[in-house]
Specification:
alpha/beta; Chemotaxis Receptor Methyltransferase Cher, domain 1; Rossmann fold; 2 domains; 3-stranded antiparallel beta sheet; 10 strands; globular; EC 2.1.1.80; protein-glutamate O-methyltransferase activity; protein-glutamate O-methyltransferase; CheR_N; S-adenosyl-L-methionine
């Protein structure tokens, strides 16, 4: 207690912060710098409340002594960053529509596109809208979408496919009318992706640190955007190699605008800014 009888606010100690960030690095490769101390403290507060721990010290004792796999998953859920938007980096979807889809439409087999690090679903549902628009004009075109993330929490949100009207603002008015369901209650600001679109997307948990990703079918297109920035250079190259291993020869890899594959010896060639093709 302080002099006035008020308990000092519990804080995450430097030692426990270092232990947590090393555990996160070991389990999912994400690098948390020293500047992330406050962010980790704030996010871990959710786990303290969920488990009924009074202090960060108690929580960390539980985390490291129990080695609970369920709690490890929950830890990763609260720590991983999940920033995403509909039609984010829209030039990628223009390239997809104008160059990639006409090319892939010449093949007989259905197209598979993989949204790696899909977060709460905005990216794969954007893909589904873009591909559905193309399919309307090309009746033989068929597709499916695989969407993966390490966070079970965001995957659950993605599968519900419910978003606020503010979140769906980047979607054009015509696409909103076609692909979103609105509540009859005008005070409800939430919308939901239509069932036809939801049925095109399969969500699955995947850890980039797994030795192999083991997709049953090779995708023709992979989007792995704004995820590599959370890993060190060596881990980035390891992840990209595994992604390319899954990609069909001649397939396309899209990365985020702040990311680069320069100085990596990879079997790809750049075809546009942040867009690569497997050799």
């Amino acid at each position: 207690m302080g002099a006035l009888g008020v308990a000092h606010e519990d804080r995450l100690t430097r030692r426990d912060f270092d232990r947590v960030r090393e555990l996160v690095r070991e389990q999912c490769g994400i690098q948390l710098g020293p500047d992330k101390h406050t962010m980790v403290e704030v996010r871990l507060k959710r786990r303290l409340r969920a488990l009924g721990h009074a202090t960060y010290t108690d929580y960390c004792a539980h985390l490291f002594e129990s080695r609970s796999k369920a709690e490890l998953v929950s830890l990763i859920d609260v720590i991983t960053t999940n920033k995403t938007d509909f039609f984010r980096e829209s030039n990628h979807f223009d390239f997809l529509t104008e160059r990639v889809l006409p090319e892939l439409n010449r093949r007989a087999a259905p197209m598979l596109i993989w949204s790696a690090a899909c977060s709460s679903g905005e990216e794969p549902y954007t893909m589904a809208m873009v591909l559905s628009e193309f399919a309307e004009k090309h009746e033989s075109f068929r597709f499916s979408i695989l969407a993966t993330d390490i966070s079970t929490e965001v995957l659950e949100r993605a599968e519900t496919a419910v978003y606020t009207k503010q979140v769906v603002e980047p979607i054009s008015a015509s696409m909103q009318r076609k692909y979103l369901m609105r509540s009859r209650d005008r005070s409800n600001d939430r919308v939901r992706i239509v069932p036809e679109l939801r049925s095109k997307v399969e969500f699955r948990r995947l850890n980039f640190m797994d030795e192999a990703y083991g997709l049953p079918v090779a995708p023709q297109v992979i989007f792995c955007r704004n995820a590599l920035i959370y890993f060190d250079r060596v881990t980035q190259e390891s992840i990209v190699r595994k992604l390319i291993r899954e990609l069909e020869p001649g397939g396309y890899l899209f990365i985020g605008h702040s990311e680069t594959l320069s100085q990596m010896d990879l079997p790809v060639t750049a075809v546009a800014s942040t867009i690569y093709r497997k050799i």
